[in-house]
């Protein structure tokens, strides 16, 4: 797909994760050099984030649950179990997607995919620090205070320039409050970005930083007014160290 043609028609499906690999790759390459499409994609992504609030909450009947569980048991009994790929295998597959032409946008998207895979692995084996052969650093963010059950994973790129934070188990906040990531160095706290979470407590943030993220030894998340604060004012909910 020529990079001088906008990919507007593909952006809604891209935001929903409905494109095939070839189409998604073409969109990522185009986004790396097109401010217009990046801005429009952010609009679609914001809309997707609101979709979870549109459908009314429904509780399935016990009969439905029973039928689903019975079908799952039958499927497991009739099909050989597939071996789950190891973390290095999953990460290696994702790193092969990385190409210099993608630029910062492509790297951020690949990093987000890597976060999800590291998170999957941690959920399978228990929380731990992970160092990838690629040089990427993975930092556990532990819940603090009233949010002690929450958790987070921060992945920093091999050059320390880019990072992505994924969180789970944080309480959903009212509209006038957001979570804010702080980058901590020499007692100073620098804004790393603000984010919200779904009703289920899940959220993600591509981290912004004036200096390489690898130069900050500590990280924290607090509750702040919507849009963020110049310095922390609310309760801390997550903390982690490099």
Helical fraction equals 25-40%
Which architecture of the largest domain would the CATH scheme give at its second level? Sandwich
Assigned CATH class of the largest domain: Mainly Beta
**Strand percent estimate:** 15-25%
Distance between the termini: 40 Å
In terms of per-residue confidence, which ranges show pLDDT below 50 for 5 or more consecutive residues? 86-109, 125-129
Query: Over the alpha carbons, how many angstroms does the gyration radius reach?
Result: 20 Å
Shape: globular
Biggest beta-sheet profile: 9 strands, antiparallel
> What's the order of the H and E elements?
HHHHHHEEEEEEEEE
User: How many domains comprise the coordinates?
Assistant: 2
Question: What structural class should be given to the helix and strand makeup?
Answer: alpha+beta
The total of helices stands at 6
Q: Any idea of the CATH topology of the largest domain? A: Immunoglobulin-like
Mean pLDDT over the full residue set: 74
**How many β-strand stretches?**
9
């Amino acid at each position: 797909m020529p990079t001088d043609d906008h990919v507007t028609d593909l952006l809604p499906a891209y935001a929903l994760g409905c494109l095939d690999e070839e189409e998604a790759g073409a969109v990522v390459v185009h986004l790396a050099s097109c401010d217009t499409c990046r801005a429009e994609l952010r609009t679609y992504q914001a809309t997707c984030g609101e979709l979870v609030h549109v459908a009314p909450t429904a509780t399935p009947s016990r009969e439905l649950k029973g039928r689903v569980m019975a079908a799952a048991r039958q499927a497991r009994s009739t099909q050989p179990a597939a071996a789950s790929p190891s973390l290095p295998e999953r990460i290696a597959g994702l790193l092969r997607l990385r190409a210099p032409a993608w630029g910062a946008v492509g790297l951020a998207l690949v990093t987000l995919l890597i976060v999800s895979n590291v998170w999957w692995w941690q959920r399978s084996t228990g929380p731990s620090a992970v160092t990838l052969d690629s040089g990427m650093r993975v930092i556990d963010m532990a819940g603090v205070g009233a949010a002690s059950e929450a958790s987070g994973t921060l992945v920093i790129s091999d050059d320390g320039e880019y990072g992505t934070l994924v969180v789970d188990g944080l309480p959903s906040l009212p509209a006038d409050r957001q979570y804010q990531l702080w980058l901590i160095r020499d007692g100073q706290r620098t804004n790393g970005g603000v984010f919200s979470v779904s009703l289920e407590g899940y959220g993600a943030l591509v981290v912004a930083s004036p200096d390489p993220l690898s130069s900050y030894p500590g990280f924290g998340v607090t509750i702040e007014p919507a849009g963020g604060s110049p310095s922390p004012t609310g309760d801390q909910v997550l903390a982690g160290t490099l």
